[in-house]
Design a protein that fits this description.
Distance between the termini of chain A: 38 Å
Chains: A mainly alpha (about 325), B mainly alpha (about 325), C alpha/beta (about 525)
Structural class of chain A: mainly alpha
Largest sheet of chain A: 2 strands, antiparallel
Strand order of the largest sheet of chain C: 6-9-10-3-11-12
Oligomer: heterotrimer
Strand content of chain A: under 5%
C-alpha cells in the first residue's frame, strides 16, 4: 500500500453517497422516531437487533437480486430458489452424518444450479429474464411439489442450520446478521474491486459496448444469475434453520420485498447504477416498515396498502428516473 | 405477393400461437374421454377465457414496452368487488357490472399516472400499486364469500352455452375483441401505443401523443383485468382475496403474452395473439388431466412446457451471424 | 422568389443547460425559397437552435417570428402544425411500424375515427415518390430497411407534412453517394416550390453545391452570415474554430520499408454476401484507408477482423502466424493486440451514464488487475495519464461520459483502447459528426501512433480524410477490394472513380457530390 493521496479524479467518500441512499437512511430514522413514539421498546438494542436478524434473510436475497438488477435483468425465480434451498438442505440432512455436513452446501448448490439455468437462458439463449426466471421458478416449484408429495422427505432443519440462523457467536450478535455482514462485505468487494464487478456495471449500462471492449459478457451474466440463485437458496437454508423446518410457500414473501429493497436503495431497475449501501438501507427500511405495521396491529389489508403507498411515495421522492436511459 | 409477405411477417407471432393452440387443443380433445362435445369445449373455454382476459390486459401495457405486475391484483379486486355489488334487481346488477369495470379503469388510471407523471419504472410502480389494490381486495373480503342476492342469472347466462352449443364466454371474448381491440388497433391512439413501445424517442420526435397513448394503455389494461375479475365471480359465485391466485394470474399472463408472440420489448404483437397464447397455455395445463397423470406432477409438467415454449424463441439465434445483433 | 418579410425569424434566443450556455442571444433569419446552411463545430449551438425551432426544447429568452408574427411551440407537434418540420440526425422513425405508418405518423387519414389504410398507402407512395424512394414498399417494416433507405423514408415523412420550413440536420450522413444525388435533386425542387430549407452539415462541398445563404455559429452565437460562395473554405473554417486555420493533416511518414513483414494480413476473407474474397496486409507504421461508397463491406471487414462475425471464411495472420480470433476478447489479447474504434460511440463505444474513468479503464482492466482484483492505484495512474495525453476536456474523471461533447466522447473511445497499447488499430469512421478541432487532433494522434509502430486501418466516409491521413487506400466495392491507391495516387478523383468502380483512365466519371 502506498500513501493515501487522492487523485483529483476519485470522488471523496462523502460525495459518493447519493441522494436515494441518503433519503433511504433518512426514512429509516423517521420510521424509528415514529415507532418510538408508539412504543419505547423501539429504540432498544434488543428490538433493533431483532429487526436486523429478521432483515438478514431479506438482505441476503436482496444481495443476489441487486447483482442481477445491476446487469439490467430481473430474477423472478427467487421464491422457489429460497424454498428449494431450504427443502434440499433439510432433505440432505436426513442422510446420516455425511448428510448433516453436506446439507448446507447442497442446498446452496441447488440454488446455484437454478441460477445457472436462468443464466444460460438469459445470456446464451437471449430469452428475456422475466420469462426465463418465471419458467425456471415454475419448474422448480413442480420439482419440489412432486418431490415432497411423492417421497415425503425430511423437512426439519439440521442442528448446523439452526445454529447459523438462530445462534449467536459473537457478543449477542445473531449469527444470521453475521451471515448477512459476510455476504454483504463480499458483495461490496466483488462490485467495487474486481473486474467482475466492473463488468456487471458495464453490461447494465450498455451490453454491446461491454462486449466490444472484450468483456466476456455472456459468462458474467450467467454468473450473476448463479450468484442470485445461490444467495436465495442460502437465505432459504437459514430460514429453515430459523423456523426449524422447510415449508412450501416460505419463499413467496421474499420476491417483491427484495426487488423493492434494491430499488428503494437507489439501484436503477434498468441496470448499471446502484450502490450496495443503498440496498442495505432498502432492506432495513422494508423490514422496519413491516415490523412497525405489525406492532401497530394494523390488519393485513392495511399493511398491504400502506406498504404499497410508502414504496411509491418514496420512489417519487427520489427525483425519479431520468427520462430514458 | 409482396403484400402477403409483409402481412405474414406482421402476424407471424399470432399465427404461431394459433398453431400451438390448435396442436395442444387437438391433443386435449382427442384424448378426452368424452371427446369433442359441447360440454368439454365449454369447460375448457371458461377456464381459458379468464386467463385470456388477463393476458389481454397485460398486452396493452406490454405493447408500450412496460409491464403490469398489478393485473392479478386488479383481477382479484374486481372479483371481490363484484361479489358485493353485482347483486339484486337486473338494473342493480347492470349498475354493479359497470361499477366493477369502472373500478378496474380507475386502478389502471392510477398506474398510468404513476408511470407517466411520476416517471417511475412500470415494473416497480405496478409491484407497489398491486400491493395497494390487493390490500383493498382483502379489506373487502377478508374471507371468501358473496352477498346473498348475487346476480347468478347473469352469471349463469354468461358462463353457459348459446344455442346449446357455443360457450357464451367464448362469444363474449370475441365480442370484446371486436368492440375493444379492433377499434383500438386501428385508431390513432392505438398506433401511438405501438409507436411508444417501439421507440419512445422517435414517437416523441414525430409529435405523437405519447402520454395519452400510455395512459390509454394502462386504463384499458385495468378495464380488461376487471372484466376478467367479473368473469371469475360469474364462475365461482363468490369473491376471494387470494394472493396466490392473483400472483398466478399475473405470472401466467406474462407467459401467455410471450407465447402469443407479443414482444416484451414493446411495439410488436397483438391481443389476439395473447388470447391464443392464453388458451394454448391453459390447454397445456389441461393435458395433464386427460393423460391421467398424478396431479402432483402437474406444476412440473406445466413448468417444463413453459420452459420449452420460451426456449423456442432462441431458434432465431442460429441465424444471427453478426454477434453485435445479439445485443439489440 | 425572395419576399420582403422573412418567413421565419429568431431573435435574441438564449438557452442554458445547467450552468452551460448552449445559445446566447442567437439570431437567424430564413427566407422562403432559399437554402440556408448552418455551419459550426459540434457544441457551437446548432443542435440546440434546431431543437428550439422544432419545439423539442423551449428557449429561456428571445422570440421566434413566423410570417412576422410571434410564435411559441410547446412540443414538436405544435411546430409541425405551424409548418416547421425537422429531419433529425438521430432518426425519428419507429422501427416496428411500416413505412406507410411512419410517413403519416403525426396525422394519419381517418374514416369514422379509424385509420384509413388505403388512403394512408396512397399518401405514403406519393411522398416516397417525391423523396426519390419510389422503390420502397410502403408495407415494409422500417427496421428491415437499410440505413440509407430509412433516411429517404424520413425525408418522405417530412414532405408528407407539407412543410414551409424544412430543417435537415446532418440528413445525408447515412446516405450513399447515389442517394445523396437523389436527395439533392429533391431539395432543389423543394426550393423552387418556395419552401425554406435549413441545411446543417459538416461536409463543405455539400454546402457549396446546395446553399444560398450561410450562417456560422460559434460558442452559442451566430458569428457571421454571408451569401454562399463569397468566402473561401479556409475563411469559413477560421470563422468556425475562431482561430487561424493551420494545416489540417499532419505530414505523412516517409515511404515504408517494403521488406518489413506485415503485422496484420488477411487472406481471402469471405462473409456472404457482404465480404467477397478480401485480401490485404498492413505493416507497422502504416495507415491504410478503406474507401469506397458507404455500405460496400467496409464495416463488416473491420468487425470480421475483430472476430464479431460468425462463420467468416478465410485466414487472418498476425505477425505472419495464423490466428483464429473469435471475439473482441481474443482480439485484444496480448498475442494479437487489436483495437476497434466502433461505428457508433453512443451504443458500441461508451457507457454514457458511467464515469469517464470507468469508461477509460474498461477495455484494459486486465492490465491493472491480478486474478480479477483491480489495482486501483495503477488504474488511476494510467487513467490520468491518458486524459492528459489526449487532452480530454472533462470536469473530472468522475464526470459521466454522457456529459462530454461528441468530440471528447470520441477521444475517450480511442483512449480506452490506447490504454491497452494495441499494435493494430481498426477505426470505423471515427470523425463522423465531430468538430473540426477534435478531428485535427485525431489525425495527429493517428500519425503519432503509426510512427510509434502501430498498424492502422481507417475506414472513413470522408474522402479528404483518406487523402490526408492514409499511406495507402483500399477502395471497396460490393464486398471486395477493387483498387489499391498508394501515396500520391490517392486523389479525390481516383477515389471517386474507383468507388463507383469505373476505370480511372476513362476520366472522372460522374461525381455527384462534388461541385
Amino acid at each position: 500500500m502506498t500513501t493515501n493521496t487522492q487523485t483529483p479524479g476519485r470522488p471523496s467518500w462523502t460525495s459518493r453517497i447519493d441522494m436515494p441512499v441518503a433519503i433511504a437512511f433518512g426514512c429509516i430514522i423517521v420510521l424509528l422516531i415514529v415507532g418510538s413514539l408508539y412504543s419505547r421498546n423501539f429504540l432498544s438494542p434488543e428490538y433493533l437487533l431483532q429487526q436486523l436478524k429478521v432483515g438478514a434473510f431479506l438482505g441476503i436475497v436482496a444481495t443476489g437480486m441487486m447483482i442481477v438488477i445491476l446487469i439490467g435483468q430481473i430474477d423472478l425465480s427467487v421464491p422457489w430458489a429460497v424454498t428449494m434451498g431450504a427443502m434440499m438442505a433439510a432433505a440432505a440432512a436426513a442422510y446420516g452424518p455425511t448428510g448433516e455436513v453436506l446439507a448446507i452446501p447442497f442446498g446452496i448448490l441447488c440454488g446455484v444450479a437454478m441460477g445457472l439455468v436462468n443464466g444460460i437462458g438469459v445470456a446464451y439463449l437471449r430469452i428475456p429474464s422475466m420469462i426465463v426466471t418465471l419458467a425456471v421458478n415454475a419448474v422448480a416449484q413442480g420439482l419440489m411439489v412432486a418431490y415432497t408429495g411423492g417421497f415425503a422427505p425430511q423437512d426439519s432443519a439440521s442442528a448446523a442450520m439452526k445454529y447459523l440462523a438462530a445462534g449467536t457467536l459473537i457478543l449477542g450478535l445473531p449469527n444470521a446478521v453475521l451471515m448477512w455482514i459476510v455476504v454483504g462485505a463480499l458483495a461490496v468487494f466483488l462490485l467495487n474491486r474486481t473486474t467482475f464487478g466492473r463488468a456487471v456495471y458495464g453490461i447494465g449500462n450498455r451490453e454491446s459496448a461491454a462486449y466490444l471492449s472484450g468483456i466476456p459478457t455472456q459468462r458474467v451474466v450467467m454468473l450473476a444469475f448463479a450468484l442470485s440463485g445461490g444467495l436465495a437458496a442460502f437465505a432459504g437454508v437459514l430460514l429453515a434453520g430459523y423456523a426449524g423446518k422447510a415449508a412450501q410457500s416460505m419463499g413467496d414473501a421474499y420476491l417483491l420485498p427484495a426487488i423493492a429493497a434494491v430499488v428503494l436503495g437507489g439501484t436503477s431497475i434498468l441496470g448499471g447504477r446502484g450502490k450496495y449501501l443503498g440496498t442495505i438501507a432498502g432492506v432495513i427500511l422494508i423490514t422496519l416498515l413491516q415490523s412497525i405495521l405489525s406492532v401497530m396491529q394494523i390488519a393485513e389489508f392495511g399493511r398491504q396498502i400502506i406498504y404499497g403507498v410508502v414504496i411509491v411515495a418514496m420512489l417519487l421522492l427520489y427525483g425519479r428516473e431520468k427520462s430514458g436511459r | 405477393m409482396t403484400r402477403f409477405r409483409f402481412a405474414f411477417t406482421e402476424h407471424r407471432g399470432t399465427l404461431l400461437a394459433l398453431a400451438i393452440f390448435l396442436v395442444m387443443f387437438t391433443l386435449y380433445v382427442a384424448n378426452h374421454p368424452a371427446g369433442f362435445t359441447a360440454n368439454v369445449v365449454q369447460t375448457a373455454a371458461n377456464k381459458g377465457v379468464l386467463l385470456a382476459l388477463v393476458a389481454m390486459a397485460q398486452t396493452f401495457v406490454v405493447l408500450t414496452a412496460g409491464i403490469d405486475l398489478s393485473v392479478g391484483a386488479v383481477f382479484i379486486l374486481a372479483n371481490c368487488l363484484a361479489s358485493y355489488i353485482v347483486a339484486g334487481s337486473p338494473v342493480m346488477v347492470t349498475v354493479g357490472v359497470f361499477g366493477v369495470l369502472l373500478s378496474g379503469m380507475i386502478c389502471g388510471a392510477i398506474n398510468g399516472v404513476i408511470v407517466i407523471f411520476g416517471r417511475l419504472q412500470p415494473i416497480v410502480a405496478t409491484i407497489a400499486s398491486g400491493a395497494v389494490f390487493f390490500g383493498i381486495a382483502l379489506w373487502l373480503r377478508p374471507f371468501p364469500g358473496s352477498t346473498s342476492d348475487f346476480g347468478s342469472d347473469l352469471a349463469d347466462a354468461l358462463t353457459g352455452k348459446v344455442f346449446g352449443v357455443i360457450p357464451a364466454s367464448l362469444m363474449l371474448l370475441v365480442g370484446i375483441v371486436l368492440v375493444i381491440w379492433v377499434p383500438f388497433r386501428r385508431s390513432v391512439l392505438g398506433r401511438a401505443v405501438y409507436a411508444v413501445g417501439s421507440s419512445e424517442t422517435a414517437a416523441y420526435m414525430s409529435g405523437m401523443p405519447i402520454k395519452r397513448a400510455k395512459f390509454a394503455a394502462y386504463v384499458l389494461s385495468g378495464l380488461m383485468a376487471a372484466i376478467g375479475g367479473l368473469f371469475l365471480t360469474f364462475f365461482t359465485y363468490s369473491g376471494e382475496a387470494s394472493a396466490a391466485n392473483g400472483n398466478t394470474y399475473t405470472l401466467y399472463s406474462i407467459a401467455a403474452v410471450v407465447l402469443g408472440g407479443v414482444s416484451l420489448f414493446g411495439g410488436r404483437g397483438s391481443a389476439v395473439g395473447a388470447i391464443l397464447g392464453a388458451l394454448a397455455f391453459r390447454a397445456i395445463g389441461d393435458l395433464m388431466f386427460v393423460f391421467d397423470i398424478d396431479p402432483l406432477w402437474q406444476p412440473l409438467f406445466q413448468g417444463i412446457i413453459l420452459m420449452i415454449a420460451v426456449s423456442l424463441g432462441a431458434a432465431r439465434l442460429f441465424r444471427i451471424r453478426n454477434r453485435l445483433e445479439l445485443f439489440s | 422568389m425572395t419576399e420582403l418579410t422573412p418567413l421565419f425569424c429568431m431573435e435574441g434566443i438564449s438557452k442554458r443547460y445547467g450552468g452551460v450556455r448552449a445559445l446566447e442571444q442567437a439570431e437567424l433569419t430564413v427566407h422562403a425559397g432559399r437554402v440556408h446552411a448552418i455551419l459550426g463545430e459540434n457544441g457551437a449551438g446548432k443542435s440546440t437552435l434546431i431543437k428550439i425551432m422544432s419545439g423539442v426544447v423551449s428557449p429561456d429568452e428571445g422570440q421566434m417570428l413566423l410570417d412576422g408574427r410571434p410564435v411559441t411551440f410547446a412540443n414538436p407537434a405544435a411546430a409541425n402544425a405551424a409548418g416547421i418540420v425537422c429531419i433529425f440526425q438521430e432518426l425519428s422513425l419507429i422501427p416496428d411500424l411500416s413505412v406507410a405508418d411512419n410517413i403519416v405518423v403525426s396525422n394519419p387519414p381517418t374514416r369514422f375515427g379509424m385509420i384509413d389504410r388505403k388512403a394512408q398507402r396512397r399518401i405514403a407512395m406519393e411522398a416516397l415518390e417525391r423523396a426519390g424512394g419510389g422503390d420502397i414498399h410502403p408495407d415494409e417494416l422500417v427496421k428491415d430497411l437499410p440505413l440509407s433507405r430509412r433516411q429517404i423514408v424520413e425525408i418522405a415523412k417530412a414532405l408528407a407534412r407539407r412543410p414551409r420550413v424544412l430543417i435537415l440536420d446532418e440528413a445525408t450522413s447515412a446516405l450513399t453517394a447515389a442517394d445523396v444525388a437523389t436527395v439533392f435533386g429533391v431539395l432543389k425542387r423543394l426550393r423552387a416550390e418556395g419552401i425554406a430549407l435549413l441545411y446543417i452539415s459538416h461536409r463543405m462541398h455539400e454546402i457549396a453545391e446546395l446553399a444560398d445563404d450561410c450562417t456560422v455559429f460559434r460558442n452559442g452565437r451566430n458569428v457571421a452570415t454571408y451569401a454562399a460562395g463569397t468566402k473561401s473554405d479556409n475563411e469559413v473554417v477560421e470563422l468556425m474554430i475562431g482561430r487561424e486555420y493551420s494545416a489540417m493533416f499532419p505530414p505523412k511518414a516517409k515511404p515504408l520499408d517494403i521488406g518489413k513483414a506485415p503485422v496484420l494480413e488477411a487472406k481471402s476473407l469471405n462473409w456472404a454476401p457482404r465480404l467477397n474474397d478480401v485480401s490485404f496486409s498492413v505493416r507497422a507504421g502504416e495507415v491504410v484507408g478503406l474507401g469506397g461508397l458507404d455500405g460496400q463491406g467496409q464495416r463488416e471487414l473491420l468487425l470480421g477482423l475483430f472476430g464479431v462475425l460468425r462463420g467468416m471464411g478465410g485466414q487472418v495472420l498476425i505477425d505472419g502466424k495464423p490466428k483464429s480470433i473469435n471475439g473482441p476478447r481474443a482480439a485484444k489479447a496480448a498475442d494479437v493486440g487489436m483495437a476497434l474504434i466502433p461505428e457508433d460511440r453512443k451504443t458500441e463505444g461508451l457507457m454514457l451514464p458511467m464515469s469517464v474513468r470507468d469508461n477509460l479503464s474498461f477495455a484494459s482492466l486486465g492490465r491493472v488487475s491480478k486474478a480479477g482484483l483491480i489495482d486501483r492505484a495503477a488504474e488511476d495512474q494510467s487513467i490520468d495519464a491518458m486524459i492528459k495525453l489526449l487532452a480530454i476536456k472533462t470536469a473530472g474523471s468522475a464526470a459521466t461520459a454522457g456529459s462530454l461533447s461528441g468530440g471528447n466522447q470520441q477521444k475517450i473511445v480511442i483512449a480506452k483502447w490506447l490504454m491497452n497499447n494495441p499494435r493494430i488499430i481498426l477505426l470505423n469512421d471515427p470523425t463522423r459528426g465531430i468538430d473540426v478541432g477534435t478531428k485535427q487532433e485525431i489525425y495527429l494522434l493517428l500519425r503519432q501512433l503509426a510512427d510509434q509502430g502501430a498498424a492502422i486501418v481507417l475506414y472513413s466516409t470522408d474522402y479528404d480524410e483518406l487523402i490526408g491521413c492514409c499511406d495507402r487506400v483500399l477502395v471497396m466495392y460490393d464486398g471486395a477490394v477493387k483498387r489499391e491507391l498508394v501515396g500520391d495516387a490517392i486523389t479525390e478523383r481516383a477515389l471517386i472513380a474507383s468507388a463507383l468502380n469505373i476505370d480511372v483512365n476513362e476520366g472522372a466519371g460522374p461525381a455527384p457530390v462534388t461541385a
